[in-house]
């Protein structure tokens, strides 16, 4: 091993001198060279970018993976540069449990059939979640992590060099100041007598040494100033690159928002399809019986006197016999009307058959009930159109 004692001693001396200068600056006992205001603003902006990027990255990881153990596992695999094993999502696991339950309860029973239907859509939700996690990691998390582990490390390294150059510059300034004070003091109070030539020669030699010390300090100051200016320019160029980093993160943020929108749109689409499947299942078996006995999802009658919840309604059976293909509008026109009032539609609703009325969010319709009708449904009227509407999609107005 090549061990250079002289270099080690020199580096230790430089480190000690810088430490003394830094301590004296903190105590107010030494002057400090201030950086250019523009450079100071760039440094402040860079620090803020780094801090907020760390917070956003950490919280996004928590959002995408709430399990701390799973995040630690992902971190370890990332540091080891190994591919993370495929992990089953919670929705996919739930779907598998439902399938297993349906097999045990009987796939030909109403409950078993419903479990199989819901399990299929849970697995679709799990697949959409997996795609969302992968897209977010590639388009958003990786660029943020690359900035912190790449660009920011380079900036931090150059900033440390700049701080060292500034300390060296201030040390040279203090050294020159001391040399000039010593030279001025020697010139003001000469330490010799004209009657003693030997003292005159010694004092002249000391004066020459002091002058030489001043020249040396001035030269060192010029070198330190040049190195400081060069390092300040390098640091400034790197810090100005933060603007490009912001633009890059802006694009990544847009990609992340788009991935979120796509994911939630897929989930909404799957849930609407699932709701239609369950409604068709309930309508198919509810002709001779009440649908509540097949797909129990009761909604409190309190919805008739207050705002509706955001849950989707499960339609009940029509009061007419499945043997008579007559529309609900024709049937209900012969039944007494009770409690007609206005209602505001909370969500879009697509009618599943001719007995129902399609709805658009925020429109106003007239609703009422009829004797013997399922409490989860009302009759809705919009102009000449009439049909069943789910209570949970309405906000009843006084």
Overview of the structural elements:
By secondary structure, this protein is of the alpha+beta class. 63% of the residues lie in helices and 7% in strands. The protein is built from eight helices and five strands; from the N terminus they run ααααααααβββββ. It has helices at 5-26, 37-64, 68-79, 90-105, 110-188, 197-240, 242-285, 328-332, and strands at 338-345, 364-369, 377-382, 385-390, 394-396. Strands 4-3-2-1-5 form a five-stranded antiparallel sheet. Strand 3 and strand 4 (385-390) form a beta hairpin. The protein is elongated, with a radius of gyration of 40 Å. The model is unreliable at 287-337 (pLDDT under 50).
Task: Briefly summarize what is shown.
By secondary structure, the protein is an alpha+beta fold.
List low-confidence stretches.
Answer: 287-337
- Count of β-strands: 5
Largest β-sheet summary: 5 strands, antiparallel
Strand-residue fraction? 5-15%
Distance between the termini: 90 Å
Q: Over the alpha carbons, how many angstroms does the gyration radius reach?
A: 40 Å
Work out the helicity level: 55-70%
Q: Order of strands across the widest beta sheet?
A: 4-3-2-1-5
Q: Helix segment count? A: 8
Principal-axis shape equals elongated
How do the SSEs run, as a string of H and E?
HHHHHHHHEEEEE
Q: Structural class given helices, strands, pairing?
A: alpha+beta
